[in-house]
Design brief:
Strand content: 15-25%
Order of helices and strands: HEEEEHHEHHEHEHEEHHHEEHEEH
CATH topology of the largest domain: Rossmann fold
Helix content: 25-40%
Number of helices: 12
CATH superfamily of the largest domain: Alpha/Beta hydrolase fold, catalytic domain
CATH architecture of the largest domain: 3-Layer(aba) Sandwich
Number of domains: 2
CATH class of the largest domain: Alpha Beta
């Protein structure tokens, strides 16, 4: 059940939804989440079912030892259902909170196996008393066809906003089935993993459930329209990289095109116009009906000084657009690439931020 927070009426209502097994639209339980800039919508969540499996069956025996693994089937409105795996590591004694760990792209690998120092970050958080939960969308969705591009949770069609229902629904399942009741619930995601967490707040109304987000190298989906159309001026950044374009480049074909099950984004990069322009905007974190005010959630951003991807200016755009429990902060790890936890001080930064703020 969700943690207690400074808006107990929302927390109690969300807890009631979870206890009833209702993982559909939060509006079903009467939620209206207001935005400071727009009339916000709350997109419908889905359902998640499953249970414990062997960690060997989901390739999770590497990395941090002693995990318990799960396989879930996630179904969301209007998109294909998809299986995913979880790896849960618990602290000694009663957990004081729960932290989700998500890698970038479509999240098809484990955080503690993908990043050089991913195990360090997770073990630091676990040793501080938190349950850690890694997500991995390693399985193809139902209806996957030959010739279709697999991109984990970003496998479409539907677009990133609709497809992020998968991550948001899993977060609610973890909160209800793994987390200690009435304890902080937090998450960190890198690149598109940070976007998945962002959508959970901006479009799925889960701000009251999350105590803190540690957003690393992103989110890169703040302006899908700019990333695909490649027609916006470069933006100045804060970690010493200078001006960087919001254009996706090769990432369009790897991650954005699969979310629509077509090549609209990579085509738009070449022509600078698209019949999908309105859809790109709707599917962005900076959409006209998103939520931008998260009064119960601390949100921190970390960028690598060696990262020159579109994730940096796009992430800074979301940071500048939102308000949170405290003013969102930006930190730089000078020697870190886009994959922040590939640098030891990057992994340490992530862990220390979570430990200091997930309370």
């Amino acid at each position: 059940m969700p943690k207690a927070n400074s808006r107990p009426e929302i927390s109690r209502a969300l807890a009631g939804c979870v206890r009833q097994g209702v993982l559909l639209a939060l509006l079903t339980c009467g939620f209206v989440v207001a935005s400071s800039r727009h009339a916000a919508a709350v997109d419908p969540l889905g359902t998640a079912t499953g249970g414990v499996v062997s960690c060997a069956s989901v390739n999770a025996t590497g990395g941090v030892p002693g995990g318990t693994c799960y396989k879930l089937e996630v179904s969301c409105p209007g998109i294909e259902s998809i299986p995913l795996a979880l790896k849960v590591n618990t602290p000694s004694g009663t957990a004081i909170g729960t932290v989700m760990f998500t890698v970038g792209g479509g999240n098809t690998v484990w955080y503690d196996q993908h990043f050089t120092y991913g195990p360090n970050a997770i073990e630091m958080v676990q040793s501080a008393g938190y349950t850690t939960v890694q997500t991995n969308f390693m399985f193809k969705p139902s209806g996957f066809e030959p010739g279709q591009t697999f991109a984990g949770w970003l496998t479409g069609a539907g677009g990133a906003r609709a497809l992020s229902c998968r991550w948001a629904t899993v977060a609610v399942w973890i909160n209800a089935n793994i987390a200690q009741p009435s304890t902080p619930f937090c998450a960190t995601g890198n690149s598109a993993g940070s976007a998945a967490a962002g959508y959970a707040l901006a479009d799925y109304g889960l701000g009251p459930m999350f105590t803190m987000l540690e957003e690393t190298s992103g989110p890169p989906l703040t302006h899908i329209d700019r990333g695909c159309l490649c027609n916006f001026p470069k933006e100045d950044t804060t970690c010493g990289q200078g001006y960087i374009s919001e254009c996706y480049g090769k990432d369009a074909q790897m991650f954005i095109d699969p979310s629509y099950d077509n090549s609209k984004c990579s085509q738009a990069e070449m022509t600078h116009h698209s019949s999908y322009e309105g859809q790109f905007l709707h599917d962005s974190l900076d959409s006209t009906d998103a939520t931008f005010n998260f009064p119960t959630t601390d949100i921190h951003f970390v960028f690598g000084g060696l990262d020159n991807t579109a994730a940096v200016p796009q992430g800074l755009d979301w940071k500048n657009a939102i308000t949170a429990k405290t003013p969102p902060t930006v930190d730089c790890v000078a020697d870190a690439p886009h994959e922040i936890a590939d640098a030891l001080d990057g992994a340490t930064k992530i862990a220390t931020d979570l430990i200091a703020n997930c309370h």
